[in-house]
Amino acid sequence: MREEGRIRAICGIWTVPYGRSAPNDSGPLARVPKTLHLFTMTWFTGVVVYLLVWWTVLFCILPIGTRPVSDSNPADGGWRGTPAATHLLRKAIATTIVAGIGWLGIFALVESDWLSFRSGTFALPAP
Question: What InterPro entries is this protein classified in (predicted)?
Fold first, then answer.
């Protein structure tokens, strides 16, 4: 463990210890939690959300710029919807960039208090 007051990482969540300077457990700091979480999205959740966004964006980008083969013959194994050139590397790079931008937007939304189920308009009532 590092000394108090420094930022430490526990399971991908950055925590800052605070509220430990109270001499006893009574007073205003007694009800304050001992750690403050800086990020609510862990690294595992971030990777899962990125993969979901990446696959969704891939299926949106795949049909862009495809031209069907003009002389397709079903007897030869061709199909009228077969693309002449797939450009998969170009589409994978575009998917990665667009998914990264989308993931940053989702991360900003999750980390902000604008859309929160813990406080604000969408919060559940206290028991």
Answer: DUF1467
Q: How far apart are CA 53 and CA 45, in angstroms?
A: 12
Q: What is the pLDDT of residues 108-126, one digit of tens each?
A: 988 887 777 777 777 777 7
Kindly state the DSSP code that residue 75 receives in the 8-state scheme. G
Residue 17, classed as helix, strand or coil, is strand
Question: DSSP assignment, residue 30?
Answer: G
Please tell me the distance from the alpha carbon of residue 107 to that of residue 116, in angstroms, as a whole number.
13
pTM of the full structure: 0.61
The sign of the dihedral angle between the CA atoms of 76, 79, 80, 81 is negative
Helix (H) or strand (E) holding 77: none
Question: Would you state the structure tokens that stand for residue 110, as one six-digit string?
Answer: 């999750």
Q: Determine the Cα–Cα distance for residues 125 and 36; give it in Å rounded to an integer.
A: 22
Per-residue pLDDT tens digits for 58-93: 999 999 988 877 777 777 766 777 788 889 999 999
For residue 50, report the phi and psi dihedrals to the nearest 5 degrees.
-65, -45
